[in-house]
Design brief:
With about 280 residues, the protein is α/β, with parallel strands linked by helices. Helices cover about 35% and strands about 25% of the residues. The chain contains 8 helices and 12 strands. It has helices at about 5-20, 25-40, 85-90, 115-125, 140-155, 180-200, 210-215, 215-220; strands spanning about 50-55, 55-60, 65, 70-75, 95-100, 110, 130-135, 160-165, 205, 225-230, 245-250, 260-265. The strands form 2 sheets. Strands 4-5-7-8-9-10-11-12 form an 8-stranded mixed beta barrel. A 3-stranded antiparallel β-sheet has the order 1-2-3, with no helix packed on it. Helix 6 (about 180-200) links the parallel strand 8 (about 160-165) and strand 9 (about 205). The protein is globular. It starts with a helix and ends in a 10-residue tail after the last strand.
Length: about 280
Amino acid sequence: MCFSRLYKFSLRVLLVCALGLPLTLLASCAEDQAVESHIELYKSPYNFEGLVYENDRYTYTENGVLQSKIGIDVSEHQGVIDWNAVAADGIEFAFIRLGNRGATEGVIGLDEQYQANLEGAVAAGIPVGVYFFSQSINAAEAIEEADFVLANLQGAALQYPIVYDHEPVSGIANPRANDLSKEQATENAQAFCNRIKEAGYESMLYGNKSDIARFDQSIRDTNDIWFAEYDTSTPTGRFDFSIWQYSNNGTVAGIPARVDMNIEFLTAPKPGASS
């Protein structure tokens, strides 16, 4: 522990004792200190000096060797896509939204462009994964979502994982899943990922720093992470991830709307491996 942090912690102790505050506050301070120390100890597996941004796209090299791929993720919001044009524009992988659960009523639906996008990407030779936008409020609903994904995949081969995307929803009245406890959020994600793995597919978690923080370390250690963070020259997540979604405003030939842009780090550690 550095001197400045030790000094701050000592001041907390003195304040707690002098003011006669509960010892639970001191315990909370100690817990905060432990979290800070854990964050400080984290070491990224990447040397971001090798991260280069050019023509609105990122590449990553290590020791002069290219160690990245350029990708996108799409849904019905991108409209009808010319996947041959996408492939010709240098896109090397794609995540396709398979479906979602509504944020108020909780109804599950298939993305209107899912089938066309899956078939088009595969025909154009672009490796694919799929994602499901979850609003599950318990493990049973998460399993229902995983089963929905598997039923609509119909055994299709995927080169990338099936992704669990659970985010708080804003701008609507009474969103059903915004206030899940960390325990419940983790249980739901675990139920979804377990079902996906049982079917022989790889699973993955998606989110920004706040989304990922809703999950316990246990599930973060056993599932790959697709990290979303915009408006920064290098990602700042203090956890391992293999894919970085760095923009939601990209342009790609063959796609009539703005699209999310991603970079995959080919040297990413396997889930559970120490950094």
